Amino acid sequence: MTASTVRATPALLVTAGAVMISFAAVFVRLADVPATTSAFYRLVFGAAALAVLLALSPRMRAGFGRGWAGSAVVAAFFAADLWFWHRSILYIGPGLSTLLANFQVFVLATVGVVWLKERVGWRFAAGTALAMLGLWLLFGRDWAGLGPEARAGIVLGLLTACAYAGYLLTLRGVQVRDVGMRPEARLLQVSLICAVLLGGINLIEGHGFAIPDRHSLASLIALGVVCQVLGWLAITRGLPGLPASLVGLLLLLQPLLSMVWDLLWFELTLVAVQWLGAGLALAGIYLGMQSRAARR
């Protein structure tokens, strides 16, 4: 077996994971249920799939009985992430909401600079400039002409980026403090707690838990099993075997493909200058992924 063949398997895993996760916003849109309800079922079906995996593999269960307090903090950020994002998807569509959520790389890098006193290089500076220009071309030029739902969707998408960064930071923190706990066990804890949180919020908002039809059920199951579990497992299995530059490029498939699915299935409509803005934002996100602070 050649070295290139060895590297091909991790690359295929990360690619497959990014493709699977790119459908998450699509399934949210197709589920045809309130935003919090779809987020709740995402966690329920995801937790069920994880529970089956852990039942079949005792190795994956390592540490499941401890660390629940740390997982509760992680789950709070993840619940906020899904609450913001699922609404953004319904307001501005799968593609743009996913693009905005990926601005988390700049939030993470900023935390690295402010909190960890890290230095950033030209990639971060160039990536930030490109992403901000792209954001302005997408939305800023015609902000006054946007409707209230579109404005709310944009703000929620950026709040998603902040909440997602908080999720990643707290998840990394609890993993560092308990290296003996398997990530699958941690994710099941987070999923269970997050499902309880979102279920309570769903009730407070006055929504029920009824799933309208088989089409909606299939979308919610796919959201939980394919996007929440299988996509995540594929990416985490493949990441250690790849250089950072290739990882950033492959992970960029998620927002890029989300925009493609939005264009094909939901008739995403952007003028030429907005497509340019989307391209600049994607380029900026890629450069942000390569920065030392964002990788940390």
Provide a quick synopsis of the model.
With 296 residues, the protein is mainly alpha-helical. It is built from 14 helices and no strands.
Tell me about this structure.
This protein is an all-alpha fold and 296 residues long. It has one domain (3-295). 78% of the residues lie in helices and 0% in strands. It contains 14 helices and no strands. α1 (3-22) packs across α12 (253-265) and α4 packs antiparallel against α8. The longest helix has 30 residues, at 148-177. The chain is globular and about 50 Å long. Residues 1-7 have low confidence and may be disordered.
Terminal residue distance: 32 Å
Helix content: over 70%
Work out the count of structural domains. 1
- Biggest β-sheet: count, sense, barrel? none
The string of secondary-structure elements, in order, is HHHHHHHHHHHHHH
Mean pLDDT: 88
Gyration radius, to the nearest Å?
19 Å
Structural class: mainly alpha
Query: How would you sum up the global shape?
Result: globular
| Unreliably modeled segments | 1-7
